[in-house]
Amino acid sequence: AEHGWYVSVSIVIATVIGVPAGIFLGYRPRLAFWFINLFNAGRAIPSLGLILLFILLIGFTDLPVFIALIAMSLPPIVTNTYAGIYHADKQLCDAARAMGMTGWQSLTGLRLPLAMPLIFSGFRTALLQLIATAVIAAYAGAGGLGRFLIDGLGQQDVPQIISGAFIVSVLAIICDLILLALRRLLFRHSTGYSVQH
User: Fold this and answer.
1) Contact 80, 183 (CB under 8 A)
2) How far apart are CA 105 and CA 111, in angstroms?
3) pLDDT tens digits along 111-145
4) pTM of the model as a whole
5) N vs C: which end of the chain shows fewer Cβ within 10 Å?
6) H/E element holding 155?
7) Distance, CA of 27 to CA of 84 (rounded, Å)
8) Which of 87, 85, 54 is nearest to 71 (CA)?
9) CA dist 117 to 95, 131, 150, 162, 194, Å?
10) What's the chain's Rg over C-alpha atoms?
11) Minimal CA–CA distance to 111: which of 127, 126, 90?
12) At what angle do helices 63-86 and 112-133 cross, to 10 degrees?
């Protein structure tokens, strides 16, 4: 339950921030070049390093955990949303403009539906990363499945370490299968793809 709490809150906040940011950048490719590269450069910073940095600045609370997890899950959401909006079929967008559709109507009625498979792929990537790396919450004195790994290492309890790793892996696989089935159900006529820079 604790692990699910960290993952759920982080993915919701990352989606609320990342999708609008990706849409904004989708209309501004020059600006997007700098932001996307900045996001991807930030992915090189270890999540554990981010947590330790924010622990020093904020203290031992859940806040450093959420900041690190949200920062880690933003790049795939922002990147895929940007790519989906920017690479929407130009001929269809031109036709919509010629028919008198406003920018908002074109976005909600055309670009977003076309981009949804790609946005969903970014969401799926971010969620799986979160499930795997939310174990670092234990380093901040928080709970979650990371407690099995941290406590197991401290106690040199190999079965506990293996159990924790196994549960996290099973959870990630189950979520991935659910998202894969959901994607096939929602986008059965689409050939959505994932963009990773």
Assistant:
1) no
2) 9
3) 888 889 999 999 999 999 889 888 877 777 677 78
4) 0.81
5) N
6) helix 146-155
7) 11
8) 54
9) 22, 21, 37, 35, 9
10) 19
11) 90
12) 150
